[in-house]
Design brief:
Number of strands: 4
Helix content: 55-70%
Strand order of the largest sheet: 1-2
Number of helices: 10
Distance between the termini: 35 Å
Structural class: mainly alpha
Order of helices and strands: HEHHEHHEHHEHHH
Largest sheet: 2 strands, antiparallel
């Protein structure tokens, strides 16, 4: 089940004390044990987003919802945490690829990457380049057959071979800040 997000390990990679900590946090924020999209946005204080940012948050939620039942349960939650905290780079790249592949066709096109990066900029608010520049640079560097789409193989090989690109992608799409919000509780308690 965990490898649906590219994580080859298991929840055992996180020790029992950490699991207890995360379980307590999860159940405090979500007593039903089933986190819906609305609760996910509320927990992360992500209301009032631009349409692009909202689309990205929904894509993150649906990527974490591995069994596609419309909820993130604790097992899916801990698998996501394990991936973000302890996942190897190729596992994270597989997860990023799945996140970017919004239509699920097994390829990332320029429109999908542009949409995701625009949304991330809207949430994070910091950028060294425009979404268009970022998208064009990614495709220029790693679309080896110049077909306007990136396969999983092209994406992973291209990013792993380019140290600067690896750093840019991991910084731009890092979800550690999401975990910090969850770990520290809501940003603005009601």
């Amino acid at each position: 089940m965990l490898d649906a997000m590219g994580a080859a390990g298991s929840a055992d990679d996180i020790n029992a004390m950490e699991i207890h900590h995360w379980y307590t946090k999860f159940m405090k924020e979500c007593p039903s044990g089933q986190l819906c999209l609305h609760e996910f946005k509320h927990v992360l204080d992500l209301q009032g987003l631009t349409p692009e940012a909202n689309s990205y948050v929904e894509q993150v939620f649906h990527t974490f919802d591995m069994n596609k039942d419309g909820f993130i349960d604790f097992l899916e939650f801990i698998a996501a945490i394990n991936l973000v905290i302890r996942g190897k780079i190729d596992q994270k790249l597989k997860w990023y690829f799945k996140l970017y592949d919004a239509d699920g066709n097994g390829c990332i096109d320029k429109k999908e990457l542009l949409s995701i990066f625009t949304a991330i900029q809207a949430i994070n608010g910091h950028t060294n380049m425009s979404a268009e520049e970022f998208t064009n640079m990614i495709f220029q560097k790693i679309d080896v057959n110049n077909d306007g789409e990136l396969t999983l193989e092209e994406f992973i090989n291209g990013v792993e071979k380019d140290k600067d690109l690896m750093e840019l992608i991991t910084k731009s799409f890092d979800l550690s800040n999401v975990l910090k919000v969850i770990q520290n509780g809501r940003r603005h308690s009601i």
